């Protein structure tokens, strides 16, 4: 799974997002490579090793190998409505975003910054959905975690499949009404919303919840 979080391990992403990376994420490429190489060459090296010793084992791999700055940068540009990424890059990103929904640790920044809430409040339930609800109820008192939750909320607005709880509840409706609508740019979400009361009650319920969340 390493390649999912760190752009340099994902050849498809590199090939298809090269122009967008050069345009929007150049600082990430330079910094990440310098940082990464120096650590590889020198086993006694600096912060990274010290930092990973303070974390427990299951987090160490995430810290050490999955510092996904490039992908993080592309993801935040993907949700920025004033920026249009190239369509091939968007397809790669959607793939990465959807895969990271299966395991919250692959969304490195979200996991690192919201870990304390995840470990106390969100055991045994859809973790991203749990974070969104905590955010909505004003129970997140950490600004860096808040920023990450805002990002995943925006991702769900752009690509409905980036919102697992919503996709799950509205699966039948998506197939029935929105199957031929392309992913991205929020088009499938708009399609569902335009169906009003025609969608199933479980889909209506979560759409209502999400509209309250977007307003908050």
UniProtKB/TrEMBL annotation:
* Annotated transmembrane regions: none
GO CC entries: Golgi membrane
Region span, Disordered: 32-63
Compositional bias, Acidic residues, is annotated for 36-47
Alphabetically, the GO molecular function entries are: fibroblast growth factor binding
Recorded hits in InterPro entries, A to Z, give: Cys-rich_GLG1_repeat, GLG1
For bias type Basic and acidic residues, the affected ranges are 48-63
Q: What is this protein called?
A: Golgi apparatus protein 1
